[in-house]
Amino acid sequence: MILEHRTAQAMANSETVMASAEIPKPPEQVFAALVTDEVERWWGSADTYRMVGWSADLRVGGRWSVIVRTADGKDLPARGEFLEIEAPRRIVQTRRYDWDHPTLGRRQTTVAYLLEPIVGGTRLTVCHGGFAGLTEAAAEHAEGWARVLSWLQAYVDAGSRVAA
């Protein structure tokens, strides 16, 4: 069954970003796309940045890391720790850039993914917190999460067309 999904949506207040998208794959497949090296196949675009070198120890207390490779070829490392894992329903992890992000600096934030089964796929909700006092960073990350979830939708859609 093909899921007619809505455009990915995101919003922010002064402390937290919320984003949501409907993905036409079961939660197990969406979960894998978020926490395995599959991230490198869909997270990013040629004109923005790509994720490369994904590494993760997928357990509570396990660490993850990735390189954000910008369109102009800069490598910007990011990393964090898994705080909660309830496969395939929930992931909570910390995130920290190991470089001076223009609006966030090196502040550690927390990202929670909630995967809910729906008819024809999964509703993925992202709650990204830790922006207190950084309203501009929260707004920028809201735009970023809408873009990221759209990339995930496009990746899944392209795979569905190829398999059909």
TrEMBL record:
<dbReference type="InterPro" id="IPR013538">
    <property type="entry name" value="ASHA1/2-like_C"/>
</dbReference>
<dbReference type="InterPro" id="IPR023393">
    <property type="entry name" value="START-like_dom_sf"/>
</dbReference>
<comment type="similarity">
    <text>Belongs to the AHA1 family.</text>
</comment>
<feature type="domain" description="Activator of Hsp90 ATPase homologue 1/2-like C-terminal">
    <location>
        <begin position="26"/>
        <end position="156"/>
    </location>
</feature>
<protein>
    <submittedName>
        <fullName>ATPase</fullName>
    </submittedName>
</protein>
<dbReference type="Pfam" id="PF08327">
    <property type="entry name" value="AHSA1"/>
</dbReference>
